[in-house]
Every structure is written in structure tokens, then in C-alpha cells.
Amino acid sequence: MAKITLDNLAHSYLSDPAGEDDYALKELNHVWADGEAYALLGASGCGKTTLLNIISGLLRPSRGRILFNDADVTHAPTAARNIAQVFQFPVVYDTMTVRENLAFPLKNRGAAPDYIARRVQGIARMIGMEEILDKRARGLTADAKQKISLGRGMVREDVNALLFDEPLTVIDPHMKWELRTQLKALHRQFGHTMIYVTHDQTEALTFADKVVVMHDGRVVQIGTPEELFEAPAHTFVGYFIGSPGMNVIPARVEGAQAYINGASIPMARAYGALDGKVEIGVRPEYARLSATEGLPVRIRRVEDVGRHKIVRADFFGYDINIIAEEGEEIGPDMTRVSFDPARVNVYADDWRVEGEAA
Amino acid sequence: MDKTVNHKAWFLVLPVLALVAFSAVIPLMTVVNYSVQDTFGNNQFFWAGLEWFDELLHSERMWDALGRQLAFSAIILAIEVPLGIFVALHMPKRGVWASFCLVLMSLPLLIPWNVVGTIWQIFGRVDIGLLGHTLDKLGIAYNYTQDSLAAWITVIVMDVWHWTSLVALLAYAGLQSIPDAYYQAARIDQASRWKVFRYIELPKMAGVLMIAILLRFMDSFMIYTEPFVVTGGGPGNATTFLSIDLVKMALGQFDLGPAAAFSLMYFLVILLISWVFYTVMTNLDKREGV
Questions:
Q1: A349: which DSSP letter?
Q2: pTM for the full model?
Q3: Residue B81 is part of which domain span?
Q4: Rounded mean pLDDT for each run of 10 residues along chain A, 358 residues in total
Q5: Which DSSP symbol is given to A76?
Q6: Of A279, A315, A344, B93, which has the fewest beta carbons less than 10 angstroms from its beta carbon?
Q7: Is the Lipid metabolism keyword given for this protein (chain B) (predicted)?
């Protein structure tokens, strides 16, 4: 197990990158703690797989270094990095039995037969496959195969990190929960450093201690699920995380007041002069409809999703979402919306500005 | 649901019946007819029973031809399959060179059989052929018209030259279908090159390889044109394979009865071997499916 340091890391798929736009992965400086579970979250093409491939050694970064503990592994081949990876599509050796599959990485490294047998038995118990150890891997279901590749990764005791590249894509929905829970339990039990790439926020938020949100080749925020929800560092984090995402509305900010079309919105924090494009962000969960309080709003549609209702509304010409409690009656007189002042975030040029308590 | 019963529907099957009858059933039955009769010309036939079959089963000539045929098929399979896999493994996976290699590999497949025969017939000639002349000058005794070994080598090298591409292309198609993740996983598992081949590439190629083997077996088992053009079955009977012998018997000597019996047995042997192949293939699938 290892601490992973990304030092001035950047990657471009072009041989001669000119500007920042040519980089699929823009410069990164981070230290990922030993034994933590990280999720790399972002839309397709945001650079998360590039980053994963650099960590696993399938890709050499154009610039910068990557360190496992304190050893520079930037130019080390995959095999020398002692990592394990679970891929999007289950990779199993079809002609081998489950047992042979699990033993394969150890066998290749010349481990003693009795050690291999012990270890394989242990891993099989962990992933719940003791019963079918002697079955051929080929005929198994996708989730069983994915478990085997997970087991193959964990069979080595000394792996530096376990990497997951959208491992639940081909798994049936009802099995996803089980596998994710199992992963989480394994992480608690063994404390491997885990890096999990996904574009599914639910997966990321339930699996990881820290979620690394990536956008356009850049890490925009690393934080706990709570931090990402309460204080998105970038408007992208705001609307990528949450269902529906954060409402982002252009505004003018003066002290502890935000103005939209001249109407004022009170905030819990005060801000100095801001440059660039200024917006406020409020999660739908912190917006409240009422008949009397707040600013005028026109309701366009109400979607009842079971636990709560999502109100789609028009607010000074901007589309916003408001979450109303399941029991709340939404009548024709509900024409006003108010925002929880403590939950209003201010963004300048898409990045969050920290205010001072007013 | 009740099925509609309409016996007129049988008429719809008639065209197919007629077609199959004319193209397959009647010719086959004619052969069967010939195989149990004897004739001295003038369309006079005498009942011979199973005499021809009996004679054939005791004929050294047929057994020799069958032996040569089996040896030939076994040798070319033993060369072409590993060689084809080897070539496929070393072909570039993508890019301009991949297309170039594909075109290059398909070239021999586009050449008609008798042209292939002619090419090698000339190529191997000691007086004017590049190969034959060069070998002769190097002091290697090579003359496919007089030496059985040289004739065999020529015929085999010719077949390898003509058909290895087919195996290589099929194996290449099998290799191309392997996702990159498999190779990455193998690297992570520190699998050796041999193990990558044994546990990833070979299993993924198994399906197309079976087809390649079946195709090459069938084709080589009925080979006629190429050796006929190069050696004419000689020297002596050294390269007289089943089909060459059969044509000699039927059209050269006009022994219609024995030739008919011969071709029926030829047919049965092919049927038998194909059946064995088929059974092995489906059993492989079943076993792997468990």
C-alpha cells in the first residue's frame, strides 16, 4: 500500500502540445493518502481515464512525476508498479478455472505453492466464490467475472493501489449495489489505497472517502461527498453533483447581498469586489417555495419522483429547480421563492469565492 | 393455434426438389449406379455387385494414394497453422502498415489454382526457373521431375505459399477481437509472453482456428490442380493424390465402375472426417461453456 504523489503532472496526446488546450490532463499537484478510497468523477473525456492510465503505467505523462510512497515510478512499467486494476469489461482468463485465475498473478511471481493455495482460499472466501473455485471462468456471469478480476487484484498482499476503471458498467443494476457494498467492506477491512474512476455520482459518493471531480482535464475539487454538496468549488461540481444539480444564476454581488435584475437576495457571508463573470449557486434542496416570502417565480412543471417533488421554474428568465417535500402542496398561489442565506455560494469566473461571515 | 392444412403447399417445394435432384441427387445416384456395374462400352452394363468396392479395398494403389493424401494434409496443416498464427501475431495491429500487410497477405489467395501451379512449375525448373536454377548452381541436387522428395517439397512449399495467408488472416481477425484490457491485465499480472499467448490469444483464436483448420483440411484433401500442373502426379506416383488418381482412373483409363466406387469412398472419407471435426468442435464449445 502506498501514498501516491502527483508532482506537476500533465499529459498531452499530441507530440508537440502548444497551449493549455492541447493537454488532456492539465497540470496537477496532489498527494493521495495511503489507504484512502478515492473516486475520480467526471463526464466522458474529462481526463479521468488518462490520469488512471498514468498511475497504472499504461501511459507515460508528458510532464511531471508520479511517486509511490517516495519512489519515483514515472518511467516504471506497469508490472514493476505492483498495482492491480479492474477494468470496465471483466477480464478473466477464460480457459482457466476460478482457482487458476486467482492464483495466476502469484504463480507468475513465483510464489510458493502452499502460500498460493492459502491466499487463493482466503480471497475466494472474501469475494464469496469458495463454492465455485473449480468451475471454468468462461461460463460465469458478468458480475462473477468482475469479482474474479477484483480477487486477482487483491490476491497479492503487497499491492500499492487498487485501480478501478468504471468497473460496474456492465453489471446488472441489482448486482451493482451488492458489489459496491462489498468493495467498500473490503476497503474497510484491508485498507488498500483505492482509486475508482466513474461518471456515476452515486457510485463515487457512496464508494469514496474523497471524491476527485475532474472537468476538462483539470481537477476542480477534491473533497468528501459532503464538501462537494455543500460547497462546490466550481460551478461544474455544482451541477454535476446532485440530482438535479445546483442552480447557477448570474448576479451582482455587493457585500452580503446578491442582486438579480435589481431584486436582492440576502446571503450569510459578505464578499469584496469581484472580477469577471459573477454567479450565485444555490442547491435546489435549499430553495423554498411559498406564497408570501421571497422573489417572484413562475412554475413550469412539477415532477414527483417519490421521495420529493422537483419543481422546474422560471426565475427572472433563468431556469431553476426547487425541491419540495413530498407532503408539500404546490398550489397556484406558490409564486415566490426564497433561498437559505447560509447555503448561497458565490462564483467568480466559475470558481467559488470564500466570503466572510457577515 | 391450429395449423392450416393445405396439401397444395407441397407444390411450392417442387422447384427446390427439381433443382436438388438435377444438381445433386441424380448425378450421385448415377455414380452409385456405375459403382455396382461393369461396362465394356456400347452402353452395355453388367451387374457387378460390390466387386469394385471389394477390389478397391484390396488395391494397393488406392491405399497408397490415400496414405499420400493424408500425409500431405497432415504436413501442410502442421506447417500452415503454426506459421499462420506466427505471422498473425507479428502483423501490425493498426495503422497504414496493417492495411498494407492485409493486402499483401491476401494476394496469394487471389491467384487461380492453375496459375499457382504454373508459377511453381516454372519457378522450380532447373534450366530456366529462378529457384531450381539457383539451387542447382549452389550444388544442391534438386529436380522435382525426377526426385520424389524434391517433388514433395515443391508441392508442399507451393501449398504453404498459397494458403498460409488464409490461416494468418483468420487468426489475425481473432486477435483483433481481443480488447486491450486483456493485455493490460496480463501485464499487471506479470504474465510472460508465452502465457499471454497460451491463456489469452490462443483461447480467443480457437474458434476461427478451428474453421481455418477445417477449411485447409477440406481444401488440401481434394487438392488437384496445383500438383497436377507442377508434377502431374509424378515422378512415378510420388505425388498422385486421391483426386489425381481418381481422375486418372475415370477419364484416363475410363474405368467407370472402379472410379465410381472410388469416388463414393472418397466422399465417405471426407464425410467421416468432417463429422469428426464437427463433433470435436461442438464438444469443445460445450466443455468450455461449463
A1: T
A2: 0.76
A3: 59-289
A4: 83 79 84 88 84 86 87 85 87 89 89 89 85 85 87 84 86 81 83 88 86 88 89 89 88 87 86 86 89 86 87 89 84 85 89 82
A5: -
A6: B93
A7: no
